[in-house]
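pipeline: protein-struct stage 2 | run 1193 | Serine proteinase 1
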Amino acid sequence: YIVTAAHCTVDKPNWKLLYARFNEFNASSTDNCTILDDNSEYCRVDYEVEAIIPHPEYDKNNVSRPNDICILRLATDVEFTDELRPICLPLELEVQELPIINETFTVTGWGETENKRPSDIQLHVDLPGLDNEACSSVYVVANVTLTDRQLCIGGLNGTDSCRGDSGGPL
């Protein structure tokens, strides 16, 4: 299974999500494999998506996007290696007790850069966790309200996630 954002997968009439790709770091490279320092290699691999399962309460028309989460069920199990491992997700109770404010979170993605085009190379940025009330006061102009089940992870000094990073890891 893969966790992503529901808005990346729901109500997309002109395309069908066929595969999830692992170990891809440079989309412009024609090489399927990356050579490691010890001369071993790991290769990108595609897994067929068998089912798209959005949260039952996801509402694409709600600008606040509560429940914007989706599970992709793969047709086969992922073969884990030293370079490809699952991310263990905490339980809801554990999340509620985690410190967020002023903690550092890493966002990874292929989103737009300063030239307004998607990156060919997978990028990452470290961002601070922010107080939901402070975020809500910023987003009020867009009529967005954060719930206590959403995190506010913000960009400072021109660094942030951007269009195209949605659904990626945090």
